[in-house]
């Protein structure tokens, strides 16, 4: 059951974003920023958590989920450490994602060559 | 006087300089397109034996020059000046490519109109008697252009239908005061025309106004009707740009629909090669001219052609800073020399 | 811009819009739906497997992130992720795999310009904004949260 929810929720988010890509002049970079910030805001408003519980991977895999992860990290850090948590929480929560992207991305540069598109 | 000014922007050469020879070098995708067999040389992997895309682009510029010179049995030391340009920052493909030839050179920037700019300057200096041989060369490369203007090659994005595919290709033209099979009877140097469009994914629409302006100016300066040309061929307006051009010309009361061709549409097969709105880049117009247009003029199928490569004069910085994309187009009047005979 | 008034510019823009073909949106939405759905389902599979192995929620989520990113980088390297995106559009951009592709692609392309000046300087050329604005937004919201707590609005 959870697989079905993950599929259609994740798919629906992508389908909606497709409208942005096709009908506005927004470039991919800006769309990614929009997704991350929206995820953080939805997390702040308390909307993202129940949504994530329902959809599982369908909510956490999209970049919206990354924004929510950032927000949760900051919130926890603020609760535990007060004001300074604002600076501590973000990178702490997103460490896995950012580190993985950098480490694997760099390793890819050692192994792969840029190839012509067809 | 060998040349005289015509109207506001044009020159007519009474003793017209000729294109003695030309050569085209292209990448894999281009060699698989509709004009595939017509190119002089095609690469297997677009690296042409070099290590980077930039070095590859320099290499094909050099090869194009060497081939063109070889066809005419002229050595680089006989060439007075080289006029060349490309799309890259600081024109590095041209500088690195021309270095080995050791010909005094002028580095140009006209974006995708560079072939027109180079031919105009080469013919003007040949007609003025500054030297017996001038070389005009230009190039573009998909890898270098994508990296410079859009995204690294492995970046996964969906291209809109108005986007064009930068041609990997270079062509060189040997222009001389000696007789040849095709003469450059005149040139119309274009002005910058900007209709305020800010869409870098729709270059055809950005450049069409400039093409319309230069074509109309050419007809007015030379006192001609459009029908006096067998063909009017733009560089890379593509499918979208062509449609807009025909409309803009109609607004001026000129119908070129039966005469107009576009190199960007000719070089790729839209259906099978997934190139959306067509080819683009300096190399697009140049290699099409060398491999497709010039042979038709030499054979007499077309007697007089107006060749109008178009360029979009933007940079990534200007674009990011919110500026619009202005266009420019240069017109080159090419005519068959029916009396010319090939000597061995 | 010189030769055109603002009204002329807008008129030309509107005209160009009518002449410019666009992808069929419904079909593209379906493709995005399928592609994104598939990637999210894969993520769900990883999450479930991790939890079955006894890992807590946060660690499972981290593993899901790491594995999806690894997969995306691999597909980027062999030039397959581009084809997925060409077909699936937003379905490849929206999941975290799109973010990973946007880091791996510059790393591969710019290595010719050197380790520091090439890869080092340009690896975040596409993804940089995501990190900047993600951190900034969440921190800003964190500030609001802290203020709300200090003022007793939230306990």
From TrEMBL, chain A:
InterPro entries noted in UniProt: Spore_V_AE, SpoVA
UniProt entry keywords in alphabetical sequence: Membrane, Transmembrane, Transmembrane helix
Highest taxon listed in the record's lineage: Bacteria
TM segment ranges: 6-21, 33-51, 93-112
PANTHER family: STAGE V SPORULATION PROTEIN AC-RELATED (PTHR38450), STAGE V SPORULATION PROTEIN AEB (PTHR38450:SF2)
Protein name stated in the entry: Stage V sporulation protein AE
Species this protein is from: Claveliimonas monacensis
TrEMBL record, chain B:
SUPFAM superfamilies xrefs: Thiolase-like
Pfam families reported in the protein's UniProt record: SpoVAD
InterPro entries in alphabetical order: SpoVAD, SpoVAD_sf, Thiolase-like
NCBIfam families documented for this protein: PRK08304.1
Protein name: Stage V sporulation protein AD
Organism, scientific name: Claveliimonas monacensis
Biological classification of the source: Bacteria, Bacillati, Bacillota, Clostridia, Lachnospirales
TrEMBL record, chain C:
InterPro entries: SpoVA (IPR005562)
Pfam families: SpoVAC_SpoVAEB
Keywords of the record: Membrane, Transmembrane, Transmembrane helix
TM annotation in the entry: 29-49, 61-81, 87-108, 120-148
Presence of keyword Transmembrane helix: yes
Protein name: SpoVA/SpoVAEb family sporulation membrane protein
Transmembrane helix found in the keyword field: yes
């Amino acid at each position: 059951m959870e697989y079905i929810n993950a599929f259609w929720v994740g798919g629906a988010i992508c389908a909606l974003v497709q409208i942005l890509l096709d009908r506005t002049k927004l470039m991919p970079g800006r769309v990614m920023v929009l997704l991350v910030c929206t995820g953080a805001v939805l997390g702040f408003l308390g909307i993202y958590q129940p949504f994530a519980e329902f959809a599982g991977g369908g909510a956490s895999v999209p970049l919206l989920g990354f924004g929510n992860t950032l927000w949760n990290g900051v919130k926890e850090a603020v609760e535990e450490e007060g004001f300074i948590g604002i600076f501590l929480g973000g990178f702490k929560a997103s460490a896995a994602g950012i580190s993985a992207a950098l480490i694997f991305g760099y390793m890819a540069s050692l192994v792969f060559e840029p190839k012509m598109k067809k | 006087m060998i040349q005289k000014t015509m109207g506001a922007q044009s020159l007519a050469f009474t003793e017209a300089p000729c294109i003695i020879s030309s050569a085209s070098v292209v990448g894999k995708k281009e060699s698989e397109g509709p004009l595939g067999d017509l190119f002089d040389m095609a690469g297997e992997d677009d690296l042409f034996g070099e290590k980077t895309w930039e070095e590859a682009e320099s290499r094909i510029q050099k090869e194009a020059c060497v081939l063109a010179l070889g066809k005419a049995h002229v050595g680089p030391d006989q060439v007075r000046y080289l006029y060349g340009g490309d799309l890259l920052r600081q024109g590095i493909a041209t500088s690195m490519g021309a270095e080995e030839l050791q010909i005094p050179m002028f580095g140009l920037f006209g974006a995708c109109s560079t072939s027109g700019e180079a031919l105009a300057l080469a013919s003007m200096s040949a007609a003025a008697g500054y030297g017996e041989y001038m070389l005009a060369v230009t190039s573009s490369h998909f890898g270098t252009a994508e990296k410079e203007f859009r995204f690294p090659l492995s970046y996964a994005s969906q291209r809109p239908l108005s986007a064009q595919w930068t041609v990997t290709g270079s062509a060189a033209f040997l222009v001389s005061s000696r007789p040849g099979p095709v003469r450059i009877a005149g040139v119309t140097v274009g002005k910058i025309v900007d209709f305020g469009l800010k869409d870098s994914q729709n270059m055809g629409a950005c450049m069409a106004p400039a093409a319309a302006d230069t074509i109309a100016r050419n007809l007015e300066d030379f006192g001609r009707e459009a029908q006096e040309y067998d063909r009017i061929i733009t560089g890379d307006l593509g499918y979208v740009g062509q449609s807009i051009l025909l409309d803009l010309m109609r607004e001026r009361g000129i119908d070129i629909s039966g005469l107009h061709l576009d190199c960007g549409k000719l070089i790729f097969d839209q259906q099978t090669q997934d190139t959306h709105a067509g080819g683009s880049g300096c190399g697009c117009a140049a290699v099409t001219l060398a491999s497709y247009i010039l042979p038709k003029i030499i054979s007499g199928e077309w007697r007089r052609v107006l060749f109008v490569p178009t360029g979009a004069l933007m940079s990534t910085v200007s674009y990011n800073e919110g500026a619009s994309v202005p266009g420019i187009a240069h017109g080159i009047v090419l005519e068959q020399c029916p009396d010319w005979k090939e000597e061995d | 811009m010189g030769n055109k008034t603002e009204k002329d510019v807008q008129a030309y823009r509107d005209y160009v819009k009518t002449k410019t073909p666009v992808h069929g949106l419904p079909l593209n939405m379906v493709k995005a739906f399928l592609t994104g759905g598939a990637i999210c389902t894969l993520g769900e599979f990883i999450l479930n497997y991790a939890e079955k192995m006894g890992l807590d929620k946060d660690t499972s989520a981290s593993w899901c992130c790491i594995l999806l990113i690894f997969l995306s980088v691999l597909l980027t390297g062999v030039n397959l992720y581009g084809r997925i995106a060409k077909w699936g559009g937003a379905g490849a951009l929206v999941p975290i795999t799109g973010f990973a592709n946007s880091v791996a692609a510059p790393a591969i392309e710019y290595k010719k310009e050197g380790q520091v000046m090439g890869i080092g300087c340009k690896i975040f050329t596409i993804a940089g904004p995501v990190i900047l604005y993600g951190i900034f937004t969440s921190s800003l919201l964190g500030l609001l949260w802290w203020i709300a707590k200090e003022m007793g609005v939230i306990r």
